[in-house]
Amino acid sequence: MSTSRGVRLGLRREVLILLPASLLLLILLSTFTLISYRSAIQMEIEQHREQAVRLADSLTRLASERAATPELLAVSPGAVGVALLDRDGWPVMSSGDMATGNLLPDGFKGPGGYGPGEGMRDVVAGIAALAPGSDAAYVRVDLSVAVLDAQNRGLGLLTVTVVVANAAVLILVLLFLRHLMAPWEALLERARKASPEREVEGARDEVQLLVSTFERALEALAERGGDEAAAETDDDIAVLQRTLAPSLESGLLLVDRERRVLAVNAIARSLLGLGEVEVPASLETVLERHPELLHLLDEAAREEGGIRRRELSVGDASEGASEHRILGVTVHPLRRDDGGLRGSIVLFADLTEARLRARETQLAEGLERLGEMAAGIAHELRNSLATLKGYLTLIERKPDEEQIADYLAEIRHEADHLQRVLEDFLTFSRPGSVRPEEISLTALVKRATSDPALGRPPVELEVATDEDVRLVGDRQLLDRALRNLLLNAVRASAESGTTEPVRVRLEDSADEVRIEILDRGPGIAEELRERLFQPFASGFRGGVGLGLALTHRIVALHGGRVRLENRPGGGARAVMLFARGNSVTHGNDPPWLASGTG
Predict the structure, then answer these.
(1) Which domains does the chain have, with CATH numbers?
(2) Nearest Cα to Cα of residue 493 among 552, 420, 570, 426
(3) Which of 92, 285, 489, 496 could cysteine-pair with 519, CB 3.0–4.6 Å?
(4) How many helical (H) and strand (E) elements, i.e. helices and strands, does the chain have?
(5) Each residue of 290-313: pLDDT tens digit?
(6) pLDDT tens digits for 194-235?
């Protein structure tokens, strides 16, 4: 083994040596910092003393050239006070902030710099001697050193505090260092016992020994946890198998996270034509003859959220030939408490008979509706034919020409009625080829509401947007549907005798286009509510009852919806809704036309 890194003492010995040494180094650094700080303060004070002495010397030269006056004292810039003193130190003349009494410092030894201290606080003084024969003997100039003096006085307390704190920290570390290292030594001892073959290496590098031991412990825990999770998963799935498989009336597959089939009940085997299956078996093997189901389970595994009811058509292998079953398949993921995937439970339901019954029911309903339509047409034709036959009988009696003209007018009116019934029925049953294009719905609604043929009461239009509302659809069919609703609203309002106008509102949003028509007619009769959009259901006297059915058909062809309801206070509200993004489609036929009635 290479020893190029050198022999290490071990973390314990290194800590016992390096930590106290580091603390001693910090103590030395803090002591050196305090000494440097004190020296800097003293140096700054000494500079102020020298400046005060220079100012005092400059005043003595000026005093020798002129008489001592107060103006002479103002010559010293930056000084807080200037005074001329006699030989005993008493002021002869002073200016600024000077103390009273004798102004020579304690222990005065002649001209020079003094303070702070020596009877002076917060100032330093420069004292110079005047030439003999002057009125005064000395000049004193004071400079402020309040900040430096305060720092100098606090330095002593700071020094004591730092020294005591350093000593306390050093003593505490030395006393508790062994206690601090006790957990480390315990861990190291456990690591050496767990890895006796690495004892020599551990003596060289204790940290590496602990890290490697910890990593091996984590690996062992992970392996143990995986085994326990697998065992727990197998146990849970076994419980599911025992509980669900015998009691479910649906097909059941239990699949683990390794894509192994752990359980298949008898119903699943019958629906899928599997015969006997030896489990566990791979999912691919079990569903080899049903790739569409295998693809669905792969999709469920990718999504990790399961799949709700999905319908599949699969071949019935037990019957042999080309018969197919329609299966409803649901996939539920099975998860552990920590969210991990345990497997999946796959449920099958045979929907073949239900779908056949639904088609038969739809066909029966279509035939019933067709019978109702045929009865309605026969009723209209019978009434009209009876009317025509009656007028023809009257004409055979050879009345006068004026009566013949009246009878012919009635015959023509009844023939027009028959033609309208047939045209409405043909338009309803097959509204013609849809020619979709982008149209201005705003222009279409404005043109329809302004048609004078609507009569009275008037129609008022409100467009709730400044933008041109556009829609992809058949212009003629949409115009027909809108006019049917407008004619019904105007006719209902007229029959109720109201003068309140019919109100039309066009709205456009990001999701849908809405056309609302409001009237104050008698509203919708209770017996008509369930049959509003069925053929030959009319609320008007003499009405055919194909207008609303045709409107519903046209709107459905455009992927929209129609609603008709009573308004509070009387009248009805008709609403056409067209969802944004829905295209013109032929897949919205009503059930009586979708069942192959021709």
Answers:
(1) 13-159 (3.30.450), 244-350 (3.30.450.20), 357-426 (1.10.287.130), 434-579 (3.30.565.10)
(2) 570
(3) 489
(4) 13, 18
(5) 888 888 877 777 766 677 777 777
(6) 665 554 444 456 667 666 777 777 777 766 655 555 555 555
